[in-house]
Amino acid sequence: MRLFSIFSLLFTLMILASCRSTPKKEGSYMILPSPTSLEITGVSSLSATEIQEFVKQAKADFIAGKSLAGTSEVSLSLETTSGLKPEAYILEITEEQVEIKAATKVGLWYGVITLGQLVQDALDQDAALPLISINDEPALNYRAIQLDVKHHLEKKDYYYELMDRLAELKINGIILEIEDKLAFEKQPKVGSSDAWSIAEWKKLSDYAMARNIRISPLVQGLGHASFILKHDEYKDLRDDPASDWAFNPLDDRTYEVQFDLYSDALEAFPHAQYLHVGGDEVHTTGRESGKSPLELQLIWLNRVSEYADKRGLTPIFWDDMPLKNAGVYNSIFNRNLSEAQVDSIWTANEPNLNKYVDMFPKNCVYMRWNYSAPETPGNNRAMQWFTDHGFQVMGATAGQTRWNLMPLEESNTANIRDFALISIDNKADGLLLTLWDDDSPHFELYQRGIAIFAEYTWSGKKRSSEELHAAFRQRSFGSGLVSEDFSFINDLEPSVAFWKNALLEKADRNILKGMGNPMQDAVLALPEANAPGQWTERNKSKLEKAQASELVLDSVLYKISESKKAALRNSYTLEVYEQVAKVTQFTNKSLLLLAEWDLAKTAEEREATKEKLLNLEGEWKKQLAELETVYGKTRELNKPDDYILDQDHHVHLANQAIKFSDWQFYVEDLFLQKLKEGNSLEMKGDLDNK
Hints:
alpha/beta; single chain; 690 residues; five-stranded mixed beta sheet; eight-stranded parallel beta sheet
């Protein structure tokens, strides 16, 4: 009996040991952003599950402001004399221990984040943690995204989740373009009725700062001031009384209003290191003062920069207008100009800048934004002018510009990469990723661009685009989606680009709200019963694109469906992409049905197709309801009923209506109305004449 008990005990111990043992299977590890150096030499015996518990606790301690403590299996050490940069760390996993070293607590935080990614990959693949040695530090110190909320807000929980996701990518800054989404206390008329209070924004700011993300406000000024100047109370401050676009920079009350807005914004974002003052895309006359637009802008810039300086903040200013006023701006975006040609343009026009060089405030960061051609000699020359004169300069690339339904051009990979590499080569302090809300795609569709930005600003060019996109899939959804079989975003982009104006003749979707009769003047003409085949011939190119798009979308939707089955996390992102694909699919179907009606060989075929066309309205309403259900999980879709729309100087789709569907899908509504009201689909004409 005693012998049986001993065997039983040994058997139980063997079972327990096997349960605690770590699988020896090698995993595929994709850290994002890439470490500076990484070497894997084998597999460790450490339990990924137990290390996961440590990672959770260490993150919680850092967020709570506590000291980071190690365990018997994980050693954390602050080595202040190591020479490591503030955000750098060293991470090693051996057979029996994890060791993380850093010169600062933030360095340890980033080491823990990287360890968490390794653990996540191991658990995803039921693999062993690797024997690994990592030395890591950022290529750029300031790696910030712009969070633009001017046309809509997300639901509160979404922003908190976003801070966690940004922290995982080692993003350490946010420039938050607040406009009227702060309930200003000193100028209460400016804030919209759905604006967050100062306390609500401060709570988010504190949450971000606890994760080493410092939020600084962007309060638009001089131009882009419609959110203020549209109100009757501020009309006397307009530079042009007929336009709500720009302040008069010579009116002292302009600064009273701006400084009140700054004061409230800085209370809402108390950890700010910058005050972004805007200043782009604006010419002012100072009510016909006789001063040049550049002189007027510098008068304004000095006043607002002085305000920031007195509060210990560094002002940031978009640099485009001085360059435009000097006549050198176009050289920045022209890829066909040689360096010699650029030098010639600058030699002729640089005196226009130098004339006012002493008026440029020295405490300001001049932000060189370029969303299409950062690699040109002209862009480098512009940055050089600022640095040559002792000014601070920082670049701004884009993850979203004016794309309507989702970011295109591989989430702007090439532009982000090129500007990051230029910034690294020029030893710039940082780079900003702008995410404009002008046409308001769903924010989930920006996540790949943010990951790309995080990679290049931390690591430089260590991965190809394909490798980086694969790493994004692994980090976002799980290692099961790393294969190209689950790659669909790039395939979806051309269909979305075609969708934008596919149901229009020659007009652009963004300008329809300003047209007198857009249904007649812009929406695609319908085929005529008495001219069979002519519509199809006239729209031959468009129909070919629709057919090609349909084939691609079938593949995309299949890949999304399979991805949703295999995803271990972030399946909501896939749901949003799925809705985008379905919207573009509806447009293709509409075009192909029109061609089917136009080419019908019998009256019966034509009548059957006409019924399908008239059924499109019901199909669209169902699709729109599905999309709004998905989008509405995280997004406040509509503006408040009492919202005052401004003059929409830059034809921002999201600025053209209160209700989400009325601006996002205005074209579809007009098209369906035209189908329902038009008489060109009547049953008449000679079908034998095809």
